[in-house]
Design goal:
The protein is an alpha/beta fold. 47% of the residues lie in helices and 12% in strands. Strands 7-6-5-11-12 form a five-stranded parallel sheet, with helices on both faces. A four-stranded antiparallel sheet has the order 1-2-4-3. The protein has a three-stranded antiparallel sheet with strand order 8-9-10. The longest helix has 26 residues.
């Protein structure tokens, strides 16, 4: 049930009727006609822009359209008033029975209330985290992991066929550095002093890998030249790091469908195949790039390179894919990786990158556009930095990691549920302050607590109902006389519940899961306000002494709130609280 879609359909039917009566010309496009909550709730329950968007193509005054439309809408039993405002906006007020019907729909559909089919089974690949396998995940990866995972869940909830994917960057020089760093820990495990030279990874997390290498090789690699152990240690250390990363992700509640190795692209013809596809489209050529901005001519050495004509697909400059010495640029395997995604039959691609990848957006979008002939859209979401605070001070770096705060540091401090919710309390491209003290506070200023407390309060109502012998299962509650929920505060909660299906579709359409967290906070606020009024006005309390029918009606409203909170938290990957301790 999407009440806003239902009222929009009513508006469209009225507009079609106006056309058949000659009050509107034929051939108008109604796609931009919207029904949404008014900016000011005092103006009504819903508003439509129909008269405003149709005035120009209809060559009519907006108010003339709105006046006729208002009359037709007011004839529907669900509409108690339709008032024209300003130049031609139309504000609608709905009958209380409509909002009470929302409660019944929530209880009948459960957490499927708000679940959408708008995705029509579209296959979407969401790639996120994709950290270099050179150490544990840090707090920046944490934000990307939470955002990507919540986005994947949101898209699945809205009817998409979603694949969660991690790209293992195991084909570059950083994995050689990992192998050399692990070798020093191997020497340490054999009783020698490790030589952690500048540029190597200093974290203590490599000590167990050194010990595992000793168990496998004994001291046989000591004093052997690098050429004899580098390849084996690359593979061994990479596998160990990926085990660590998988464990970190599991601690956060993140599980991937696919782990794709960059290394698998090399020496297999897959990079060549991707570039061949671009060559056949006339998009690969030999050329010399202009000097980068800020480079003086004397600092610039022009070299002929193999270039991708990315400017034909929206990029600022063409991009090199092969260096003058014949080796691939870092961009070449990324092209091949996305070519693989396109050939796997995905209808849309989403990449979640850190803020430091901002300069990479246009070239990657250009590549996917070229590889798919513009048929597969790529949306790249950048997650901004996270600043950690504790006791009013920046949170110290992790000795275990060497020089950064790990995902485990955060999860061990506050738990996965708090970590995930807080990471979604800001839009992904806005910086985020994560204060370890504040996220554990029991106050309205802490959105995690505020939403969980609302759910826990409902659970307490259901427990008290059971103790009082009141049937409070969803079937019994959906059959209650919901018309008893007619107080303004009760209707406010019902109206907020009615927004949930619309919110899901907007959040999914814009790839913005933070909207779910914002909505849950607002819903919790409306519920807490109703609860507090019940302390003063006994008729608003959820359990009415000696009146089972009225109690069931009030409990139904509370239960509907918990159902939607549970659905929303499920999308965010957060477990609803049964009680607050």
């Amino acid at each position: 049930m999407n009440l806003f879609s239902e009222i929009r359909a009513l508006v469209l039917d009225a507009l079609a009727q106006m056309q058949s009566e000659g009050a509107l010309p034929e051939g108008l496009n109604f796609d931009n006609v919207a029904v949404e909550p008014p900016r000011d709730a005092a103006h009504g329950d819903m508003a439509t822009n129909a008269a405003m968007v149709l005035a120009k193509p209809a060559k009519m005054k907006p108010r003339d359209i709105a006046d006729v439309l208002a009359g037709k809408l007011a004839a529907d039993d669900r509409i108690t008033s339709a008032e024209v405002a300003g130049p031609g906006f139309l504000n609608l007020r709905l009958a209380p029975s409509v909002w009470q019907g929302v409660l019944a729909a929530v209880l009948e559909q459960g957490t499927n209330y708000g679940r959408s089919t708008m995705g029509h089974g579209q296959k979407v690949n969401v790639e996120y985290v994709s950290a270099n396998p050179t150490g544990p995940l840090h707090v920046g990866h944490t934000r990307g992991a939470v955002f990507g995972d919540a986005l994947a869940s949101l898209l699945a909830y809205s009817g998409h066929d979603v694949t969660r994917e991690y790209y293992i960057n195991d084909g570059g020089a950083q994995v050689d550095v990992l192998a050399r760093s692990a070798y020093e820990r191997y020497r340490e495990a054999n009783g020698l002093s490790p030589e952690i030279a500048e540029g190597l990874y200093p974290g203590d997390y490599l000590i167990p890998i050194g010990e595992a290498l000793k168990e496998k090789y004994g001291d046989s690699l000591i004093d052997k030249p690098e050429s004899e152990w580098l390849e084996d240690l690359r593979e061994f250390a990479t596998d160990a790091m990926m085990d660590l990363i998988r464990a970190d992700l599991k601690a956060l509640g993140v599980e991937m469908d696919v782990f794709f190795s960059e290394k698998s692209l090399y020496g297999t013809g897959r990079i060549e195949a991707a570039l061949k596809s671009l060559t056949e489209k006339g998009l690969i050529y030999e050329g010399v790039l202009e000097p980068p901005k800020g480079k003086k001519p004397e600092d610039w050495e022009p070299r002929e390179q193999t270039l991708f004509k990315s400017t034909e697909h929206g990029d600022d400059v063409d991009r090199p894919v092969k260096k003058s010495d014949g080796s691939w640029t870092y961009f070449a395997p990324d092209i091949a990786y996305h070519y693989d995604k396109v050939t796997r039959g995905f209808d849309a691609l989403i990449d979640v990158f850190g803020a430091d990848h901002g300069g990479y957006v246009k070239r990657m979008k250009a590549a996917v556009s070229a590889l798919s002939d513009g048929k597969v859209p790529l949306d790249i979401k950048l997650t901004q930095l996270v600043k950690l605070w504790k006791k009013g001070e920046p949170f110290k770096m992790s000795k275990r990691a060497g020089n950064f705060v790990t995902l485990r540091d955060v999860v061990d401090q506050v738990g996965p549920d708090v970590t995930r919710f807080v990471m979604l309390t800001r839009k992904n491209d806005a910086p985020l302050d994560f204060d370890f003290d504040k996220v554990l506070e029991q106050s309205r200023e802490n959105p995690v607590f505020y939403v969980q407390y609302a759910h826990a309060r409902v659970m307490s109502v259901l427990r008290r109902a059971a103790e009082a012998g009141i049937a409070a299962d969803d079937a019994a509650l959906s059959g209650a006389d919901l018309s008893k929920n007619d107080h303004a505060s009760e209707l406010t909660v019902a109206k907020k519940l009615a927004e949930w299906p619309r919110l899901v579709e907007i959040a999914a359409r814009t790839n913005e899961p933070h909207r779910v967290a914002f909505y849950l906070y607002e819903l919790a606020g409306d519920f807490h306000a109703l609860w507090n009024k019940g302390n003063e006005e006994t008729q608003l309390r959820f359990l009415q002494d000696g009146d089972v029918a009225t109690s069931q009606s009030k409990i139904a409203l509370a239960r509907a709130v918990s159902v939607v909170i549970s659905a929303g938290l499920g999308i965010l990957g957060v477990t609803p609280a049964q009680e607050m301790r």
